[in-house]
Amino acid sequence: MTLHKFVFSPTGGTKKAASFLCQNWGGKENNIDLTTGTIPRVDFEPGDLAVFALPVYAGRLPPAAVNRLQALKGNKTPAVALVVYGNRAYEDALLELKNTVNSLGFRCVAAVAAVARHSIVDSIAPFRPDLQDYAQLSAFFDKIQDKIRTLPSPGTQSLEKRGPDSGTGTGKTLDFYVPGNFPYKEITPVPLVPELTGDCSFCGVCARRCPVKAISPDDYAQVDSKKCISCMRCLRLCTRKARSLPPEKLQPLAARLEKLCSDRKENELFL
């Protein structure tokens, strides 16, 4: 029995939430970092569990992460869909991930929308996920494992149905509800591209570890704005703080988000 954990986490919040959720798994783990852009071949065996953990960007999943998942083929393997958002809203992202997981041949048995520090505005949910989240997520994972132990064999009609939250309305999905709309909301890229400052030591870590290779490996000041997904990984990785966002764009966004995100939002759990 192996836990296969697929995580896209440019700034670490999604990875932390996934670790909290799966803390009580007592068997072998296979951790796959979707952020690197490569997915090794995975053969799913009976008794395995897959966890898919992706961040929410403007209410949707990052297309780069979804595209990387297309290389997978489930074997009716039970799966958990986990989206992580910065205390604003996750909108259609959880439904999108649940539907994606099912379309790849997995059996989505549970879904979670968890809160982590906002990737752009650090002052929003700065310490999330925290100890309260840890207790809630790890306890929920116990319930997920209880559900998996009672699952009938794949194809049992009492468990699977055709329904509106299958995305297309034609594929089968496990019988539990998650919020969201289909068609999904349009993907609207955040127009925030980190800029290089004069403090750069030219180590190249930002270019090497950019999830979408938006930073030129020959000139770190050059960023392809069409590729950049505003994930802020380059900001978090740089020990010299040599990248920053244009203040004239960041400050209005921060002011607006801080009003929307002032109240603590709790994790939402679906089983």
Automatic annotation (TrEMBL):
Q: Report the InterPro entries cross-referenced here.
A: 4Fe4S_Fe-S-bd, 4Fe4S_Fe_S_CS, Flavoprotein-like_sf
Q: Where is this region: Disordered?
A: 151-171
Say if the entry is tagged with keyword Oxidoreductase.
Answer: no
An example of a Pfam family matching this protein is Fer4
Q: Which keywords annotate this record?
A: Iron, Iron-sulfur, Metal-binding
- GO terms of molecular function: iron-sulfur cluster binding; metal ion binding
Residues annotated as domain 4Fe-4S ferredoxin-type: 189-220, 221-248
* Name recorded for this polypeptide: 4Fe-4S binding protein
